[in-house]
């Protein structure tokens, strides 16, 4: 080997070593949130750059995210410093694998959120990090077809159906858009919006007469829903392409539409039913796995994320709202303003009927969601009789509640022991 | 080195690799499938087979394999024969035909989604030509046949090349003398294909079919992109069990079911296309 080649080898070897050392010095922030490339980049440059010791922000899909975390926990040695994910994902983890975070002295300004973050234990298992919700959005073209006398900020389900029907008739195409694709968040619509609005419950009232009405109404709405909805996962795409004019989705899954063409769309609260205006928050949190290589730095990072300035930077980067009290600046991106308004109107409405996130389901959270997805697919897509499907799915739901022993959560009336399906 | 030992030494690395990355995980998966918290059980299998979507996804997977593989076999034979006859530009054509192989299956699914969706290329074209007044949605739960055809097209486009490359290599190995002899006896091109090419192509056909059939039972990303939630297949059920329900036991059980189906068809193909003992090309 020539001297130059030897030298080159030595230098490259050294640089690999150095870069490995540099990477390991940073805290690995392993997240399921802010996955799109622009959001992830904004997280790195605008949110996390201010953290002194350095952060290696790595967002990933839930599957790989969980696989690596579980592998590290099983091996009892890991490189992940901080975990970022949704409440539902954390609640499926074993609370013993997460470090108790009470002594950090940071928490959300919402007692409900802090309570959820205990995951049924006595201690904080994660710290609430950011929040969002689901709202409605519409193309301004659709506004002319609003039923007479309907106030877009206080719609009822009947008015929404009428509106969608008017658009359908006028344009000749169903223009309601619903996230029924494989990655769409349809189950949240049923759990947090349709059921609370019609039955004032989710679990107890799953197969009630009111639930039958709710599904009948949803079938009416479905007649004016773009049938390609079973491929829709992020409704911002269909808003922008014009395939759907009136849509329901997660605020951050609508953000791109508002940011690209802020003048073309409006955001508004979810509709109300006989038992109020049901709606549901989305809660993301940060936690520290017990295998974190540098515990102190990980804790510092969690504290840093909860600082008001970081929370505002996170809002700009991800369209997820702060969980601590902050003064919002005026120059926020259009999507944030639109979504913020709609959420404020929704939660401030006189008939608001806020639902909580499912709690206490542990690793059965996925099974719980599947009950609602299956019910939807059987009633709406396969056209099976509503009462039969509900009676059938009720058994699965009861089994999940019995196995987990999860007590009822709002708007269901509290229960002693496992929440009963009545 | 001892000549008798040499072959074993040469296959040792591959064997070790297979043991570590195939056999060992396989036993782990089997263990997961047959156990829950309390020892040996068939519960996982009962659960996945009893789920209402299982028969549907089973049927869809088989239908798709049944529709796609024969067409791909015929197409790849046709394409391979054409390529073989070409004097110039053979490599170029082969390269172009194998481009889809280099594209990940999810990307392939998205490409075809861009064609078929409501604001996609096909709709814009039909609209531009005045065939339709308004863009229509082809891929909806109401037209499962269209969804099926779209998935079929995407699969044929994406995976025919796998069979093609194997068959092209196989055809190249057939000695020209056989064809010359057949020609001397006045065999038509079709006769030559049926009596010379096909029989001598058996080993390649075997490999190509096994690969393709096994892959057909693993179809997932293309279906997920085009069919959304309306066209469940077995692989999708595995994904759902593992990642959405976080139930490795039932996912492993489903994986074993797919494995059993694959082994069954592999055995059938091995038997049907076996090369008789002592026969050589």
Automatic annotation (TrEMBL), chain A:
Tagged with keyword Cell membrane: yes
Family note: Belongs to the bacterial solute-binding protein 1 family.
Protein name: Multiple sugar transport system substrate-binding protein
Main location: periplasm
Keywords for the protein's UniProt record, in alphabetical order: Cell membrane, Lipoprotein, Membrane, Palmitate, Signal, Sugar transport, Transport
InterPro entries: Bact_solute-bd_prot1, SBP
A Pfam family annotated for this UniProt entry: SBP_bac_1
Signal peptide feature range: 1-24
Record's GO cellular component terms: periplasmic space
Location within or outside the cell: Periplasm
TrEMBL record, chain B:
UniProt-annotated location(s): Cell membrane
A family per Pfam: BPD_transp_1
Principal location listed in the UniProt entry: membrane
Key words, A-Z: Cell membrane, Membrane, Sugar transport, Transmembrane, Transmembrane helix, Transport
Taxonomy, superkingdom: Bacteria
Positions of transmembrane segments: 5-27, 61-80, 92-115, 146-174, 209-231, 251-273
Annotated ranges, domain ABC transmembrane type-1: 58-269
Name this polypeptide is given: Multiple sugar transport system permease protein
Xref: SUPFAM superfamilies: MetI-like (SSF161098)
Keyword set includes Transmembrane helix: yes
Cellular component GO terms, alphabetical: plasma membrane
Topology relative to the membrane: Multi-pass membrane protein
Lineage: Bacteria, Pseudomonadati, Pseudomonadota, Alphaproteobacteria, Rhodobacterales
Keyword NAD: no
GO biological process, one term: transmembrane transport
PROSITE patterns according to UniProt: ABC_TM1
Protein family (similarity comment): Belongs to the binding-protein-dependent transport system permease family.
